[in-house]
Specification:
It is built from 16 helices and 17 strands. With 691 residues, it is an alpha+beta fold. The strands form 4 sheets. The protein has a 5-stranded antiparallel sheet with strand order 2-1-5-4-3. Helix 6 packs parallel to helix 8 and helix 8 (362-390) crosses helix 9 (399-435). It is globular and about 90 Å long. The two termini are 63 Å apart.
């Protein structure tokens, strides 16, 4: 076998290995996903129970070792803090230099009170005298060590555990151990609570607290491991493709090798389930972009961007090869097909844009516009190349021509995205108003599940307990606008927790709570509220009291509660709202009608009106969609087009770097500039100011 064929065979084998890796990423646990054979006489259910108990014991053992080690560190930290200087400024610097660590703090005090401190305290420190103490609050469990000497006391504290929703803003020690994935959660209990069997001891052997591990289902463990392995495999796949491109792009005349490289990359991208990376970035989330134009290659913005970039590189490969021969008639036909087909294909792909209710952020807009730009740029760059062939000119596209094409494609793709998002802003507004007029089955289903969970508690609980129960439920992840509360057996309000500033008919809720108490069962009711349709829930408890919840359809009529972030709940991305929605009185002359949105253009805004029914009577829902002035839009378009041209330039450079031409161009241009008067003057002035 000649050396050329051996090289081709090795390259083909490398491409096959990349495809096998991409296919393996569809299920990274292959061949380890099969069920393990069990010995005779042992059922699969028994084996799973034993396996779950083993995982739970491993996690609790690891947590016990970690707490003992942290106890030892806190004792040393408290003892070291006693050596701080007497002046407050020096004491602060000294404690800071000790480095309390993550979710930990140290405080120094004397007879007059605190002198200096450093770090973070989730529970208020207590001066209990020398020794170790476990501090608890409705949401946090902390370990505290106190050291005393000569009238001074030092407290070192570390967070052991955070209950939902506080676990979203605080990272407890139990969440940072590697074995955390083996259990669903840890339950911390006082030493008097024998339901938690494991007693955790400190570094000195003293009993601190009881802990129980809640077993993680095997399916959940498998899913987490699959996700972790898939992330590492994707990195290996990316490295393999980069190496393959570096080799396959070394010779611009080897057009066949370049086409093979791009084909392997496209096949690998199509095989990888990119939607599994949607938690990392919206670029891989089909909820924000999905088109069936190219199957899995346009299933989300990320693969679509990869497809478009590879198409650009393919066109550059044909241009750089200078070996393509065709008649002028064929080139004319091809240029027309690419120019027209590019617009049609880009418009078709743009139908996959999905605008969320919260609006489009800069990153989300980029995830839509950049792939569309690259897609259109690939078509039109090829059309420009074929147009030169059709005109009988040299079959080569220079950088200036490519920049002009990129500028045009950037402007057109930006206009397409702006048009699609404006249409969807109007549609979102109409769906929002329509949702206020009809019962919400999704909200009713989620409240039914919440009622089943709340019914398992003996009492309605306190306001912090109500928040904790809500945070652990499915409705918290759904992001519904909810107001929670508790009432006594007579239906009188005891506490209220507004996760959204909802207004509702409190009399209807009181009657529903009384009905739930009388029947002894949870009650759900669709009700007409001040802002339209709402869903009410009342759950009675065995020891008395009722838990209530009122949910509204997702609407911009109800503002976001800015304080929920302090409770650990995520807020939508801060961006320009797609529209504003308000309720107003029904007045003549607005053209508003029931069940139909009436639109009118006023300057740079769209205004819509529709009459809807509320508990206070008929009201006019007024929608405003701000399109911004033309100068503002032109400025934004200019910034986006500049970004597009920069991306196109990077791809153009990548198409020439591997073959060595880019570095020759840089050396030639640099040498020419250094010999010029401008270059010499620049260097002289630079040297003068530096020296």
């Amino acid at each position: 076998m000649s050396g050329r064929w051996a090289t081709r065979l090795a390259y083909a084998v490398g491409g096959g290995a990349i495809l096998l890796l991409a296919y393996w990423l569809r299920n990274p646990l292959i061949p380890y996903g099969a069920t393990t054979p069990r010995a005779s006489g042992i059922s699969a259910d028994s084996a799973r129970i034993v396996e779950a108990d083993t995982r739970r014991d491993q996690a609790v053992d690891a947590l016990a070792r970690t707490i003992a080690g942290r106890h030892r560190e806190l004792a040393g930290l408290a003892a070291a803090a006693l050596d701080a200087p007497d002046d407050p400024e020096g004491a602060f610097d000294f404690l800071k230099s000790l480095g309390p660590g993550e979710e930990s703090g140290v405080i120094l005090a004397d007879q007059r009170g605190p002198v200096a401190w450093s770090g973070q305290f989730r529970n208020s420190p207590l001066f209990t005298g020398q020794g170790t103490t476990i501090l608890t609050s409705p949401y946090y469990v902390s370990l505290q060590v106190v050291a005393t000497s000569g009238g001074r006391a030092a407290i070192a504290s570390a967070l052991l555990h955070a209950e939902p929703p506080a676990d979203r803003i605080a990272d407890g020690l139990d969440d940072r151990i590697a074995e955390r994935e083996l259990v669903r959660s840890f339950r911390f209990a006082p030493l008097t609570d024998s339901t938690a069997q494991r007693i955790i001891t400190g570094a000195d052997g003293s009993e601190l607290i009881r802990v129980e591990g809640v077993a993680m289902p095997p399916e959940a463990i498998r899913f987490n491991r699959t996700a972790a392995i898939r992330e590492r495999g994707a990195v290996v796949l990316a490295v393999g493709l980069i190496v393959m491109f570096a080799i396959g792009w070394s010779d611009r005349r080897a057009i066949g090798r370049r086409i093979f490289t791009i084909a392997i990359a496209l096949a690998a991208i199509a095989l990888v389930p990119w939607n599994n990376f949607s938690n990392l970035t919206r670029w891989f989330d089909p909820a924000y972009f999905y088109s069936s134009l190219a199957g899995p290659l346009t299933a989300s913005a990320g693969p679509f961007a990869m497809l478009a970039a590879l198409l650009v590189l393919l066109v550059i490969a044909f241009i750089r090869s200078r070996r393509v021969r065709m008649s002028r008639a064929a080139a004319t036909f091809g240029a027309a097909v690419l120019a027209l087909g590019g617009i049609i294909a880009t418009e078709t792909a743009a139908k996959g844009i999905v605008l969320p209710l919260s609006g489009a952020t800069v990153s989300l807009w980029t995830a839509w516009q950049v792939p569309l730009f690259l897609f259109l740029f690939a078509f039109w760059l090829g059309a420009a190349w074929l147009a030169r062939v059709a005109a009988g000119r040299r079959p080569m596209v220079n950088l200036r021509t490519a920049a002009v094409v990129a500028f045009l494609c950037g402007g057109i793709s930006t206009f397409i995205v702006w048009t699609k998002t404006t249409e969807q802003r109007l549609q979102l507004a109409m769906r929002d108003v329509a949702g206020l007029q009809r019962p919400d089955p999704e909200a009713a289903q989620l409240l039914t599940r919440l009622g089943s969970e709340l019914g398992g508690y003996d009492s309605a609980g306190t306001r912090p307990e109500l928040l904790e129960r809500y945070a652990a439920s499915d409705i918290a992840a759904a992001g519904l606008q909810v107001s929670l509360g508790t009432t006594d057996n007579a239906g009188a309000l005891v506490s209220r927790l507004d996760l959204a500033p909802l207004t509702y008919d409190s009399a209807s809720l009181s009657r529903l709570a009384a009905d739930a108490v009388a029947s002894g069962e949870a009650r759900i009711q669709q009700a007409l509220g001040p802002t339209g349709q709402q869903v009410m829930l009342a759950v009675p408890h065995r020891l008395g009291g009722t838990s209530t919840a009122v949910a509204s359809p997702r609407t911009r009529l109800v503002a976001e509660n800015p304080y929920t972030t302090l409770l650990g709940f995520d807020q939508p991305d801060k961006t320009e709202p797609p529209y504003t929605l308000t309720l107003a009185d029904v007045t003549p002359g607005t053209g508003a009608r029931p069940s139909v949105m009436t639109w009118r253009r006023v300057g740079n805004e769209w205004h819509g009106d529709e009459i809807l029914l509320t508990s206070a009577g008929s009201a006019r829902a007024h929608v405003e969609v701000d399109l911004r002035s033309w100068p503002t839009r032109l400025v934004r378009v200019a910034l986006i087009v500049i970004l597009d041209c920069l991306i196109a330039g990077i791809l153009w450079a990548l198409g020439t770097v591997a073959e060595g031409g880019f570095f020759r161009w840089v050396r030639r241009t640099t040498a020419k500039w250094l010999r010029s008067y401008r270059g010499r003057l620049t260097l002289a002035l630079f040297t003068f100011f530096v020296v």
